[in-house]
Here is the input.
Amino acid sequence: MRCSSSFENEARKLGYLAVAGVDEAGRGALFGSVVAAAVILDPNRPIRGLNDSKQLTAETRQELAAQIKERSVAWATGAADAAEIDRINIYQASRLAMKRAIEALPVKPDYLLVDAMRIDLDLAQESLIKGDARSRAIAAASIIAKVHRDDCMQQWDAVYPQYGLARHKGYGAPEHLRALEANGPTPLHRFSYAPVSRFLPSSFHQQSLSFEGAALTA
Here is the structure.
């Protein structure tokens, strides 16, 4: 699979001028927000090495993120926090984070290339399976989202050092699961995720059941 500009070029041939790639990072994490990014690349200022952020080293991602911010027409991030993820589910929260990133762009896009989703915006768009490995614009968004979220995890590590967030970035690594068992979850953990919910106090589950029952009878 080759990451190229073909999808962006096809959109431009149709007359679209501001083609934004959109992607997210952190869907599978147990802690913190899901973060999305939207990037409008400048076809006259190419960036070498763009690819799915998961295929790049942390150092390469940092270097590319700096180039993307410097050379792109526009870029922005958006997020949906753990409480929103628990309330509307991770799929819908990811779409919400993407929508927020798009709306935060200082240049309004007229066409979207989105990694495996459709966004609730009145804009022409194309959903691409494995888009971060196929489209350079989506790859750029995946890099910005990943770097931004990793930086957030570094900051939260100082607040919750016992969980090792700087090392595993909030994912379900054995170190993280051991910390959850020893300390219980923080307010920023995703309570709807099974690896987290099993360590919640029984009183929390009882309150949740009571709330759900009240909602059903309302």
Notes: The chain has two domains: 6-158, 172-217. The two ends are 51 Å apart (CA to CA). Confidence is low (pLDDT under 50) at residues 205-218.
